[in-house]
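Give me the fold.
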Amino acid sequence: MRVVDVIAKKRDGETLSREEIEFFVNGVTRGTLPDYQASALLMAIVLRGMTIDETSSLTDAMVNSGNRIDLSDIPGVKVGKHSTGGVGDKVSIVLAPLAAACGVIMPKMSGRGLGHTGGTLDKLESIPGYRVDLGIEEFKAVLRDVGTSIIGQSASLAPADKKLYALRDVTATIASIPLISASVMSKKLAEGSDIVVLDVKCGDGAFMKDETGARALAASMVAIGTRAGVRTEAFITDMETPLGRAVGNSIEVIECLETLKGRGPDDLAGMVKRFASRVLVLAGRESNEAQALSCVDRALSSGKAIETLGRMIERQGGNRAVVEDYSLLPSVNGREQCLAPRGGFVTRMKAEAIGLASNLLGAGRSKVGEPIDHAVGVILLAKPGMRVERGEPLVEIHHRDGRGVNAALALCSDAVTIEDDAQPPRPVILGDVR
């Protein structure tokens, strides 16, 4: 088999066989396929697309390029969760201990932030001592004892994805539903969960800007998981506006803690409860979502959910005292506010601009490996639907020694639209794919 023939076949819009796809992925994994030929095939896929059979074969080949985690020796149904990323997206940090408090095992391998989106690992590393680099056996031990564990992606899982993503990043081949689907699902299937729940973001701050594209991506990933024998469902969720009020790292951890204590912002709390209720039904803990919601509410009101997060933090080397003492988290004294230029109703708050503002302060990175400042970020004092008066604070900037303040204020100011009349609220969950 010659790779040039495989490239030509896809260039001409033909369907690749499983053997041809495995040949391609094995060559990338072993380093025997030159980057220029791998990039040519990636571009052909972007331009010509893939059938669901091809995409499933690509996913399988990427899964088989590395190890699979075996969680069968841990009692109970294991539910994995993945988000396509957004601004202020801290759902996993709240959902995982909440689901565990309700009796569901939730293993979670997460990533770091890049560009305008934040990363779960960066947020958790705000907690003094918290380790995201657990080995697989350590990871499984925390799952057994706590019911959940959030760690970094193991390098041995789907190594082909890491190599292919690096090529896609520099060859303008990111925007492809088959390639995105295979990238996400190869890692989720290798993690060993029995069920996978996906959070596909849609809107200004998401990769998929419109609901049609988000639904197509969700349908593709659900089909891949189902074909692999893993029950897979997806929610389409809003990312026009940042989720919650905090955008940063340590300030988002505080918001997570507050949400687990029943004091979180309505949009975040509502989304987490919806996800958690569905997870309980899928795992067989409750027969319907109404009963599941009652269980979720009890876990929150009783303190069991926040106690579960504290145990996870402690088991992974972190200082459990942060659950009650937020002063132990990184913080800065610098504060600046963006003020409303006129009175009226906030009708829009662009998520991408807010995310970029947070990054300019030092909360994020523009390339892999850059250091970040866990203390800085943006607090939203107003959200769409709220009435504000001229001069009223809209956004509060938490900065270190003035770094990035002026640019961040300009971005935040441009992100907010104020009009005379209120607009109908956009739902946090736009739909689902089952």
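The mean pLDDT is 95.
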